[in-house]
Request: fold
Amino acid sequence: MFCNEAGASIEVAGILENPDMSRLDRSLIARLPAFQGLTPDDLDRVLARATPLRIAKGAPIFECEQEAQSFFLLLDGHVRVVRTTPQGQEVIIRYISPGELLGIAIAVGRATYPATAVAAIDCVVLAWPSQLWPDFVAAYPGFAGNAYKTIGDRLQDAHARVIELSTAQVDQRVALALVKLAQQTGKPTAEGLLIDFPISRQDIAEMTGTTLHTVSRLLTAWQESGLVKSGRQKVTVVDSDRLLALAEAAPS
Amino acid sequence: MFCNEAGASIEVAGILENPDMSRLDRSLIARLPAFQGLTPDDLDRVLARATPLRIAKGAPIFECEQEAQSFFLLLDGHVRVVRTTPQGQEVIIRYISPGELLGIAIAVGRATYPATAVAAIDCVVLAWPSQLWPDFVAAYPGFAGNAYKTIGDRLQDAHARVIELSTAQVDQRVALALVKLAQQTGKPTAEGLLIDFPISRQDIAEMTGTTLHTVSRLLTAWQESGLVKSGRQKVTVVDSDRLLALAEAAPS
DNA sequence: CGTCCATTTGATCAGGGTCAAGACGAGTGG
DNA sequence: CCACTCGTCTTGACCCTGATCAAATGGACG
Reply:
């Protein structure tokens, strides 16, 4: 179960090799928003029920429509949440960063996952069986509250994207998507905020409802004006402010 | 508090005139999904804390960014949930039908409403103070569960719209919006399913991310081919099946 | 009967999708 | 170590969908 097509050869911080992983990162884990308000004892009990999993880059964590047997917390890596249309076009719903919950369909009474989650890079997640959800809600109201807050944020986010797609031009949407990604996952470098996982033009297109061609043209144009710097599956946001201004500007 | 700019002159089923309204519709209310799983006694207690309100057509129930002092249940009428962009463009997030909860920001830990709700026609709602939410969740887990299910459905819906806006053509989006509205609120007539509240071309445009001009052209074209029948602020879906086929067809 | 708002319809045009081709880089197997 | 291949990215040319601009028509309501 810890292996998948490339599982055997992955080298992630040796969490699985350490039988006592939960104690190892306890202090880090305790700090996650998902666990705010839990007593150390409660946290112990919650972590004791979790199964750590390592997911290879490109491997699915769960698939759309599949029975929701577990819910997850991303400890390390980045996850892409995707839906495919009947015609086979993919749309990226969101990227998940370390510390976030995912696959929490069970929290809103769904029996199946509404989307597919794929590891954008090698990931480490904690998994809990869905049956535990009602117990967790009853025993650790803080945990449930944080989970519902997450759902509320995502609902808000989804509405924001509906509004964006309805009213903004392609360049604005792409600019905003890059700014958000940079804020969410940006790693500071000499040149600016580097998006911390491989992301192709195609990926950006699937996030913003456009084509890789248009994204490519925009990125080269912005590179020339010093807003971004980009390479193969790599984007660095150089001037976040000007990019954001572009995203919010009236369509000149 | 029961009055607003047009409040005094509205004529809605005389619920407020009846001091005992809750007993009046008890059997109807008990049947709403929001209350499934509550014992009659619990339902009594829940309803005893509710304030019935009458909202005139066009009047707001709550406004975006405003402090979320209450949550609501729509008993009668139809509510349009709207967001306005900084540039002043309006986007219709959804229409609420009788029996649905609204303004449940508090359930996901928000202090303010994320959107504006406006009565599309004269409405009757029940309002509860937000402070009651934690008590309700604790005392009536079924109520909370149903509320979270509602939120899950809306999240699902929002994602569906993101996908639509990202991948479908305007005509498909408009067709799908009409089919959904007809299913949700359609009143059977001799000609087909009549959408049960005044809805303008502009409204449909704001739901689908297009312009009233394009909607107008589509509706006249579809009227000629017998798919719909429409008039001033009025749309009847004549051939739901063919309209749905159009919505799902590959962009020929 | 006049005013206001919703709707229709035509003409124009541009944003951005589609089609096509080539360049570049990275990993693979010989 | 190099040649090959595949996937990503770039760039040009073209054209279509649907927005924009403009104006007229038609109900509804005071």
